[in-house]
Design goal:
The chain is of the alpha+beta class. It is built from two helices and two strands, in the order ββαα.
Length: about 70
C-alpha cells in the first residue's frame, strides 16, 4: 500500500423509522431508528445492546478481520 491508497470498511444496518422519538440514550437518529428484528429504538437500548449490532461494530469487525 502507498500513501495514496485508501481502504474503506463499511457497516450497514437496516430498520425502520418510528413515528415518534423514543428513548434517552444515544444521539442523532438513535431515538427514531428501529433496527430490523427489534422493537426498540437505538435510544431505548443500552450502549452494550446497541454496540452489538451497530453499523460501526460491523465496520470495525471487517477492519479487524483485514488486519488479523
Amino acid at each position: 500500500l502507498n500513501k495514496n491508497h485508501h481502504i474503506v470498511f463499511e457497516g450497514k444496518i437496516t430498520g425502520t423509522i418510528s413515528k415518534r422519538p423514543r428513548g434517552a440514550n444515544g444521539f442523532g437518529y438513535d431515538p427514531i431508528f428501529v433496527p430490523d428484528g427489534y422493537e426498540k429504538t437505538f435510544a431505548e437500548m443500552s450502549h452494550r445492546e446497541k454496540n452489538k449490532i451497530s453499523h460501526r461494530k460491523i465496520a470495525i469487525t471487517k477492519l479487524k478481520s483485514f488486519l488479523f
